[in-house]
Amino acid sequence: MQKRKQGLQKLTETDKKIKAFLAKKKILKGEATNIFTKKELDILEEILTKKLNESKGVELDRLLIQIDELLPADTKNQIWENNHSTITSSMKNHIEEYGTMPNKNKIAADTGLSRQTIHKHLNGFAEHPLYAEQLKQFKFMADRVLAKVIKAASLGDIKAARLYFDIMGSMNGPTLTNTLIKTQNNYIQINGTVLSQETIQQLTPEQLNRIEEVLKGVVNILPKGN
């Protein structure tokens, strides 16, 4: 019985130490190791993890400011990625349902993030290193997507052909070569020759293959991305 009382007493003392520690406005890096034992540090970590998972809005903002120096870079990156994903999802769902862009109050209600965090994220996401990494991933897949566009265009898909020429024009200036290319809603005009959906569908396999070779040749002269 006496051992049990001593155990409860030690637990109470640890709780008091942690409570006093978490009352600080900002916790400095390495400060906890000078105050707590290894076992107490484990308890503190569990408490902070729970608070991070359960806190929302302004309360979460305050907690992140308080323990900023304790968070490793990986954890901060994960928090940014989660914020980006939840904000993007909220905006997407609102636009699909109402056809309008949601305001910050609506996004805050959907995500549990504060208006301040949402405002800061929307203003600074384009300069964040993780966003640059995401853009590199999309760029990495661009050649795969473009190959499918070329294949569809060579099989007579006029919309795919128009998309292809639009993409190539934006990547390589007003015109790709000396060839003059104009695109309309239902046809493509190349140096005065009109290629409509009906015209392409009437081409022989050999003619389609020649068009495909031309398209591939244009791709080959484009500068490679970094």
Offer a quick outline of the entry.
By secondary structure, the protein is mostly helical. The protein has helices at 2-22, 38-54, 57-66, 73-98, 104-111, 115-124, 129-140, 142-154, 158-172, 197-201, 205-221; strands spanning 181-183, 187-190, 193-196.
What's the layout of helices and strands?
Blueprint: H1 2-22, H2 38-54, H3 57-66, H4 73-98, H5 104-111, H6 115-124, H7 129-140, H8 142-154, H9 158-172, E1 181-183, E2 187-190, E3 193-196, H10 197-201, H11 205-221
Please tell me about this protein's structure.
- 8% of the residues are buried.
- This protein has helices at residues 2-22, 38-54, 57-66, 73-98, 104-111, 115-124, 129-140, 142-154, 158-172, 197-201, 205-221; strands spanning 181-183, 187-190, 193-196.
- Strands 1-2-3 form a three-stranded antiparallel sheet.
- The chain contains eleven helices and three strands; from the N terminus they run αααααααααβββαα.
- The protein folds into three domains: 15-69, no CATH class; 84-139, Orthogonal Bundle (Arc Repressor Mutant, subunit A), CATH 1.10.10; 141-221, no CATH class.
- It has 226 residues and is mainly α.
Protein traits:
Arc Repressor Mutant, subunit A; disordered C terminus; 226 residues; disordered N terminus; mainly alpha; elongated
Largest sheet: 3 strands, antiparallel
Please count the helical segments. Answer: 11
What are the low-pLDDT stretches, counting only 5+ consecutive residues below 50? 1-8, 174-183, 221-226
Rg (C-alpha, Å) = 29 Å
Number of domains: 3
What sequence of helices (H) and strands (E) makes up the elements? HHHHHHHHHEEEHH
Question: Count of DSSP E strands?
Answer: 3
Percentage of residues in strands:
under 5%
Report the principal-axis shape. Answer: elongated
Please list the strands of the largest sheet in the order they lie side by side.
1-2-3
Q: What integer is the average pLDDT?
A: 77
Distance between the termini: 71 Å
Structural class: mainly alpha
Helical percent range? Answer: 55-70%
